[in-house]
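pls read this protein:
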Amino acid sequence: LCPASGTSTAETTWIEGVAVTRSPRPCPSAINPGNPRIHIAGYAAAIHEALSRRPCDVVHCHGIYAMTAAAEACGGGVPKILSIHSPAVLEQAWNWTHGPALDWPKLLGLPLIRHLAQRAIAASTVCHTLSRYTRDTVRRLYLGAADKAWRVIPHWVDPSWYRTVSKTLARQRLGWPSGMRVVLTVRQLKPRYGID
């Protein structure tokens, strides 16, 4: 289930044997205090609709809104996996203190973000992170998180992606000077990542 902008109805496609349903993404104002509830309600409606067409064996969510909605829509009958890429309360605190001045009032919402994260972790059967650092940080930040089942599964790499030409030849082909430092990151370039 993927929320998608620009769609008014749910659309399902099959990718490698997995049904992927793209559902309408709610677009409330960023300063609307009901923003989390609107997103959770949108996810929950999409989950109800998807489950009315076919049952599922497991629910895998990325994010606290999706897991909160899955807990509401599925109850305890379906195992739920929560993938946590970063602690939401720390990420939002950084975003809201390094963004436009309009973001500062959002800091009042950090207790709600903490509450939703704790609810999402509590609702999950198992939590997944990409690193021990993230797991340990989340365990320290959220009440009850240390008691959960955790799995650290780093990013997977397809061995066929390994370089087949030398670094020197690759630099020549790209027109890069041999002494230039290169940093490759496969993610959004946001200031909070500290890449600069």
About this structure: The mean pLDDT is 84.
